[in-house]
């Protein structure tokens, strides 16, 4: 029954955004491949999505910090997916990252190096096939470095630049790359934080926005899930550096 | 964190932990005393407020498996009924029993052993549960069902979360041809007529009566009785050719954005509403028509946070059940007290109940009456009087709605509570699993 269905690979399947995005694709009739390091937690989401939608869902172990294992991971998938969505991310602890080099390196590698290497690998395979869509979930934190989270922000800035370059490289071949900047999202990562309601999206909203941007008739290159963020970030981006550096942000 | 139930009375401080996975539960259970699980906070009173700690179960929201051959569905306990409806109505399956709101968790439905408009025929939700997974106070995870650990199962269904934390449940969905209800409205001029109309509807799948709680004298208890059946594909094709036979819940919802001033619901405004509602219903009486499942089963879900209409002090819901032999006399007396008190009851719902139920389940054969009353200084005394009528009639109050009944009322209504406490003692649950409800009632 799944033979005629398109297949999507969701990397980071145990996160709330990953779960919601895979569910949105499954509701649209896609076959789902879930990749995650914690296979048991991913299986819990796989069963959930399969039960809610009747979609075919399978789990595939992957550690995005293990670049040597990536080609083998891609080879072992039952099919080269039509779309790959990477939602991998780790906010880390900014204060710790300022003095603990290993922690800072983990934040850099989890938010930038791992996702970029993996999506680069799929880009090459998609090019060889002549089709495929790549979606990377980056962050508004990458739009401008702030004192309270610049290690995470710098990694996301690198990832945003990587996606931009990849889009530029693949566009002539008709392959699409979508950059997603969710803004605040109500997830386990933000549980307990006071978030402004108008700027805060539910995971399901992010999932639907990704599906629409990547697969909709009018595809988009860069999306802020809540459009108000585009305005917020352009204001933040426009503050002159001599003033910005003195702000507590 | 300050917690309240859906009625917004009472409010208590409690520590809160959000469960993200069943795996973390045994550790939490072993390390803390005075805790209770909480689903989506739809119990009206103090049932889901932990004496010290409240375990938020909304993170246990994964569905686990479905067999379309048997309709058997397994879900984690924090899954919402609204999500089940969204996933399964389009596939032609309906839950075996639904309460008056779909914003409840499966764990909450089982702990309260909720009933629906089909109780007279199909029993309560617990009657359709085949398996439960439960984490006991010791931290041990056990499964139970009608055929495995049946004593534990019978204490847990309707046990208000006081035997352990429900993490998973399996129950059977029923196949339906459409998501439409063939509804017929019957008008009853007084309480005797309403009881008779409910008796006449014994063969119907769904029946419920809305009582105009403000009519007095000869019209005391005048009602609209809503009888319903799942519509067939043929009926929908004939009467609503353009409609989706298996529709989702409509998306847009009205909301109550803030607490309305206490004056909004006064005797005059409620009387005007009730009069208009009764007339509109009476006009539609007789001829059956098709209704979407959502407004038929969940009329109030259309108004987000409707509990704010009662103002900041909140409201009390009083739901009793009385046996058939004493029903007419007791319910007349209750309605008479309410109307004479001048306390406007926006909602008064009457429903016939059948047999079945577990150790501490609310339903018993008879008739159940639910009333909403805004909290004011004299509401409590009025409800104490009504409780005496219920006890004298051999009835009981619904724990999921309760915020204030006395121990005497509770013990008179729940003769199995001694046995329940024995089971709780054997599990090491007494003092360990404790809500404000259980400590108030001495459970």
From TrEMBL, chain A:
Position of the signal peptide: none
Domain of life: Bacteria
Any Pfam family: adh_short
Keywords tagged on the record: Oxidoreductase
Keyword Oxidoreductase in record: yes
Family statement drawn from the similarity comment of this UniProt entry: Belongs to the short-chain dehydrogenases/reductases (SDR) family.
NCBIfam families: PRK07102.1
Name this polypeptide is given: Short-chain dehydrogenase
Organism: Paracoccus acridae
Lineage, opening ranks: Bacteria, Pseudomonadati, Pseudomonadota, Alphaproteobacteria, Rhodobacterales
From TrEMBL, chain B:
Domain FAD-binding PCMH-type: 12-176
One Pfam family per UniProt: FAD_binding_4
SUPFAM superfamilies recorded: FAD-binding/transporter-associated domain-like
UniProt cross-references to InterPro entries, sorted A to Z: FAD-bd_PCMH, FAD-bd_PCMH-like_sf, FAD-bd_PCMH_sub2, FAD_lactone_oxidase-like, Oxid_FAD_bind_N
Keywords associated with the record: FAD, Flavoprotein
Highest taxon of the lineage: Bacteria
UniProt-listed Gene3D superfamilies: 3.30.465.10
The name this protein goes by in its record: Oxidoreductase
Origin species: Paracoccus acridae
